[in-house]
Design goal:
α5 packs across α10. By secondary structure, this protein is mostly helical. It has 15 helices and no strands. Helix content is 75%, strand content 0%. The termini are close together. The protein has one domain (4-298).
């Protein structure tokens, strides 16, 4: 067992890793159309991730089966918000909306989480964190408008933006409810239970989707995309997010979403050979200090933080 100070340092480091895992989903989303449908991809992603989590936490899940059953509705709600809406609906929206629109909409999610954490969860939000949010938000906007702020006036909103907006709100609710609904489960066991709720709500949607004549036949490429989505932006990112949030709080960990557009640009440059512009570097110069201001802790962990046990 690591001492509390070490766990907090690891959690703070993970804030910089989580967006890199989520950036893989941008690549999956670009490859998925015509290969695998949104609900089917989301179901395969979370069924696979959930199966691995259940295996890893099988002893704890069996031991805590009565307490899990007592609050089963929480896992269904979290599965709907985190796996169906933030999974399938993002893929649906990506069919008709552009990367600028997605980044603009999603960049509002940490603001919702921060406000909800202060108003609803009673978390403290220092002035330096407010400054950090503003600086990081400016960096995000600079990246998505490619350094041309006048481009904001020409953004065209389409039907897919509605799916992305719903996913943005859903992620804020998912993050806040995880903190609101306290759980004695480890991060692994809790995410396994949430995956079960997600599979439950995704299954009828995927079956309906599979019955459509326009649905492409399953292929090795669909299998590869599903496995990739399950392991990195699925299992890896969600587990790290939940573990870090339990230690650091909802508002601090929410700033990982500010790093999303920057990491996505780096992924496009490194994997898809898309050019990296000065607006990306300028955005990084704003985003990175902003995230540091929000996540930096002062003093030692509180008693409640130090006693938090996560698996």
């Amino acid at each position: 067992m690591f001492p509390p100070e070490s766990r907090h340092r690891v959690a703070q480091a993970l804030i910089w890793v989580i967006p890199a895992l989520w950036a893989v989903n941008f690549i999956v989303a670009r490859k998925a159309p015509g290969v695998v449908e949104p609900y089917t991809l989301a179901l395969g992603r979370w069924a696979l991730a959930g199966a691995m989590l259940v295996f890893l936490a099988r002893a704890e899940l069996w031991r805590e089966r009565r307490s899990i059953a007592a609050v089963w509705h929480q896992y269904v709600v979290l599965g709907f918000l985190g796996m169906l809406v933030c999974g399938a609906w993002v893929y649906l929206g990506g069919k008709t909306t552009g990367a600028m629109n997605i980044a603009l909409i999603y960049s509002a999610s940490p603001v919702l989480i921060a406000l909800g954490a202060v108003v609803w969860l009673g978390e403290r939000f220092a002035f330096r964190q407010v400054v950090g949010v503003a600086v990081a938000m400016a960096g995000v906007m600079h990246v998505v408008v490619r350094g041309q702020w006048s481009a904001l006036a020409s953004v065209q909103w389409v039907a897919g933006d509605g799916w992305i907006f719903a996913a943005m709100v859903s992620w804020a609710l998912y993050a806040l409810l995880q903190k609101k609904w306290h759980s004695s489960l480890s991060a692994t066991a809790r995410l396994a239970a949430i995956c079960a709720g997600g599979v439950l709500v995704l299954l009828p949607c995927a079956l309906w989707e599979m019955a459509l004549p326009s649905t492409p036949a399953w292929s090795w490429q669909a299998t590869w995309l599903t496995v990739l989505a399950a392991l990195l932006p699925g299992l890896g990112a969600y587990w790290c997010y939940g573990w870090a949030q339990k230690l650091l709080g909802a508002s601090r960990v929410a700033v990982t979403l500010y790093l999303g557009p920057l990491y996505a640009a780096l992924a496009a440059w490194g994997v898809l050979n898309e050019p990296l512009g000065w607006h990306h570097l300028t955005g990084a110069a704003l985003i990175l200090p902003g995230v540091f201001l929000v996540t930096r802790t002062t003093g030692t962990p509180t008693r409640s933080q130090a006693s938090a046990e996560v698996g």
